[in-house]
Fold this protein.
Amino acid sequence: MSTTTTKERPPAKEAAPRKVTSLGDRIFAGLTLGASLIILLALASVFVFLFVKGAPGFTQAAEVYAPRSDNFVGYVAPLLGGTLIASVIALIVAVPLAWGIALVISHYAPRWIAVPVAYLIDLLAAVPSVVFGLWGVIVLAPQMVPVFTFLNDYFSWLPIFDGDVSRSGRTILTAGVVLAIMILPIITAITREVFSRTPRLNQEAALALGATRWEMMRLTVFPYGRSGMVSATMLGLGRALGETMAVAMVLSLGGFNLDLLGPGNSSIAANIASKYKERSDELLSVLIATGLVLFLLTFIVNFAARWIVGRSERKMAR
């Protein structure tokens, strides 16, 4: 009886990554690396400038912070609160509207309607912020006074609608509506692209299994575009946090309060724009220090957005 032996084959070696040998590939790789380093260098330079020039602003004399406060924390806290309130109002108004418009353009409206509407929404991004500010002061603010009166009459049991109603309409709520219109094109454009890239096979499979059109959207389009929807929202929030002229023109500078219908409140960016011309060296350092706070706030918001998007993508990959 004969036995045969077979030699085991050695395990196949993993293919080494292909090295970039083409001159064009090397040039392109170098350009992309250089561009990314330039962006990081610019971001670091802005932070260093704000930190170095704004460091004295944290410990100025009490009269520099007057009449808002006698220290930096008391000076920047109302401005930070106004910034957050205006941005949150803008998101509450703009995000549902932007998602709805994006969904209509990508899946519901016929092409002869969807294309002009998409162009019209995109054109809003090209309108300068000063135009939005003028429109907010001259047109929107007076039209908001009856709305404020209605909210005060029927919803005054809420602290945000309690108090005296501004007769000029120049309140933090009006500023939030103006910001909502300004960030609407950004959120709509990104969300529309995400919705339109949902795999067609997934949508057709859901419809073939008996899902209604809305159920198909809920089960295929929204899960696929969740990370893009979050990214679009956070980009809009970043624009709202840093907006200057429109908020400065709509709001009359004042202290922080939770009443959305009364005068007062301001934002960090609007305060810098309004106080920059009348600055002294001491006040300039305070303004730069508040700019550093806004820079860090924007960085934290974008970092949180990136974490949320990455977490969503990891869940989708499971």
Summary: DSSP finds twelve helices and no strands in the chain. Residues 60-317 form a domain with the MetI-like fold fold (CATH 1.10.3720.10).
